[in-house]
Each structure stands twice: as C-alpha cells, then as structure tokens.
Amino acid sequence: MHPLIKKVLVSQEEIQRRSAELGRIIDNDYSNGKPPLLVALLRGSVPFLAELIKHITLDIEYDFMDVSSYEGTQSVGDLKILKDLDTSIQGLDILLVEDIVDTGNTINVVKQMLMNKGAKSVKVVTLLDKPSRRTVDISAEYIGFEIGNEFVVGFGLDFDQKYRNLPYVGVLKDECYKV
Ligand code: IMP
Predict the structure, then answer these.
(1) How far apart are CA 171 and CA 8, in angstroms?
(2) pLDDT by residue (tens digit) across 122-157?
(3) In a 10 Å sphere around its CB, with 0-12 CB exposed, 13-18 middle and 19+ buried, how is residue 123 labelled?
(4) For 67-107, what is each residue's pLDDT tens digit?
(5) What are phi and psi of 3, to 5 degrees?
(6) What would the 3-class secondary structure string for 120-144 be?
(7) SS3 content of the chain, % helix, strand, coil (to 5)
(8) Cβ distance 40 to 49 under 8 Å?
C-alpha cells in the first residue's frame, strides 16, 4: 500500500468484479439498439473506462471530453469546455463515464450539453457515488460503489493531480492536507 494512504475503501479486486457486473448490465440494457458511444470525462475517468470496456461485448466506441468550472467566480452550475468531443453525437445513445458523482453539478451540466448537441439519450455510469454531497437532484443510472462523505484518491481520482495511478480507491493520511 502507498505509505500516505490511511485506508483502502475499494480494492482493485472489488473494482474489477463490479466493473464486470456493470459491463454485463450495460450489454443487456443496450442490446436492442445501436451500441452506445461512451463519453469519458478527463482525466479521472480514464482508469475506470479502461476497466469497464473490457467487460462490454457490444461494438461500442468511446470519446473524451474535458470540462472545468470557471475559476475566480462563485458561480456554480457553469462549466467551461477544455476539450470537446471529436465525434458527432446526433441521434446517438450516450453513456457518460465518470469517476465520481459528488455535488452532481458536472454530470448535470454535461448531460444537458450532450442533449443540446442532439444525443438521443444520455445515461451516466460512475465508479463512485457520494449521495450525501448532492446539491443537484440527479443520479447516475449505473453506480459502482456508494461511499460516504470522505475525500478519496486512486483509480483516477487525484489530490493535486497525484495518486491517480493507485490501483485502488483510498483515503489519504491527514498529514497530506497540512501545508
Ligand atoms: P461534482 O460536479 O461535484 O459531482 O464533482 C465531480 C468531480 O469532482 C469529479 O469528477 C472529481 O474530479 C471531483 N471530486 C469529487 N469528489 C472527489 C474526491 O473525493 N476525490 C477526488 N476528486 C473528487
């Protein structure tokens, strides 16, 4: 285990097992139409996307988007597109891939953006869900693990851009947050 990790919340084995279950459910849910386009939000969702797609047998495609909140403003609910999709999504079923749904603002705004671009449907698959932090009334259709109100790192999730490469989801020791 990384020396700065206080505890592991979700192990690598648990992530693999749950991703396999989600893959089977997604296969089944989308088996009647055209396979969905997976839209992964950079950068945190990359490890989860890589694990999840191993367990989807439909002929899916994937693309990436990067969004961030506007800096220096207090406004919530507004997101800036740092990297837009390369694929036209007119008429497509979209499966948005997230690392964690926290307040719900990101998936709420991105879902709206994708619908405005002509997507036929937008559903969300997230590795983690923190329902106790929600400020927007929204939830993901596919959830890996529900966790409490704790800041987590690993499997794509960062603190100051670090720890994304940990193969598990864990909580950092308190000393990491001291300046
Ligand atoms: P939301 O818009 O509040 O739902 O936030 C979603 C984004 O906040 C995620 O994609 C993460 O980048 C970040 N985030 C929220 N909670 C955590 C956490 O516990 N660890 C790392 N990043 C987090």
Answers:
(1) 6
(2) 999 999 999 999 999 999 999 999 999 999 999 999
(3) middle
(4) 998 765 555 568 999 999 999 999 999 999 999 999 999 99
(5) -65, -20
(6) CEEEEEEEEECHHHCCCCCCCCEEE
(7) 25, 30, 45
(8) yes
Contact 125, 141 (CB under 8 A): yes
Catalytic residue among 86, 102, 137, 160, which? 102
CA of 158 relative to ligand 1 center, distance in Å: 9
| Residue 139 beta carbon below 6 angstroms from any ligand 1 atom | no
Task: Select from 43, 109, 130, 157 the residue to mutate for testing ligand 1; criterion: most ligand atoms less than 8 Å from CB.
Answer: 157
Active site residue 78: no
User: Would you say 169 and 154 are in contact if contact means Cβ atoms under 8 Å apart?
Assistant: yes
Strands, E assignment, 42-135: 61-69, 79-83, 93-101, 121-129
